[in-house]
UniProtKB/TrEMBL annotation:
UniProt entry keywords in alphabetical sequence: DNA-binding, Transcription, Transcription regulation
DNA-binding span(s): 1-118
Protein name: OmpR/PhoB-type domain-containing protein
Taxonomic source organism: Phytohabitans rumicis
Tree of life domain: Bacteria
Sequence ranges assigned to domain OmpR/PhoB-type in this UniProt record: 1-118
Keyword Transport: no
Molecular functions (GO terms): DNA binding
CDD domains: BTAD
SUPFAM superfamilies, per the entry: C-terminal effector domain of the bipartite response regulators, TPR-like
Protein family according to the UniProt entry: Belongs to the AfsR/DnrI/RedD regulatory family.
Biological process according to GO: phosphorelay signal transduction system; regulation of DNA-templated transcription
Amino acid sequence: MRTFPSEVLVNVISNGEGPGNQGPWTIDAHLWSFAGDPTAPKPRSVLSLLLLQANQTVPVSALIQELWGHEPPASALTTLQTYVLHLRKLFSAALSVPASEVAKSVLVTTPGGYLFRSASDEFDLERYERLSAEGRHALATGQNAAAAERLMQAQDLWRGPALTDVRAGPLLQPQIKRLEESRLTTVEQGIEARLRLGRHQEVLSDLAGMMAEHRLHENLHAQFMVALHRSGRRQEALRVFQQLRATMTEELGLEPSKRLHLLQQAILSDDPALEVAPRTDGLAQLLDQLTVR
């Protein structure tokens, strides 16, 4: 079975730069640099959908819906076949093998659709999902150091939003949303693991950046408040709450949750519960403890 050489990797969530490109592509530049028209949006969409469902058949009907919605032209099937042929030529050039071999072992025609075959080491999304799953399991079983390592490795694979150079249709849009939600969860859990290890100052810059992206996300604000408090910056921790409350009131007409209010009160009173040994104190357990008292 044909696999990619080490210098040709498939990147969906991380950017690459190839020779002659003016900037990063989120579908790997090593591949697109071989294409006759690297800016063509529809072949990008076809490849994106195949990559996001690697090693699974993507039905022709799904590809046509992604490209043209519910009113495809009469030539849709023929045009799709042309795009697939174009992609096979692209991979053929990247791999230095005949397009016929690509059709047999990389971008394969299956009953009713097409399948992109990839090994995990060649695909950043599969590496990300493996690392984040390992990190989540380690966190759930109290292996906080291992969790922090795996989750940070997964986080480091990201270089900005996924598939920013692809025109997303009705099927790609929810897939991209899923990836972004997964990224947010991975960052949150990585921060949680480091908080449990007492690495409070280390997470401050990550939290500041994430809160700029997610201005109304209560759990990120709670993590930031705890990290600031445990870093000896109680006034700043209280200011984070005040800013969140002002934003929620102005934009949503809502108050922060009871758990956030109780965390604010705990910081105001310098509650000893906030200083529980970090190796056993997860944020969720801390907030639960404040709630039930």
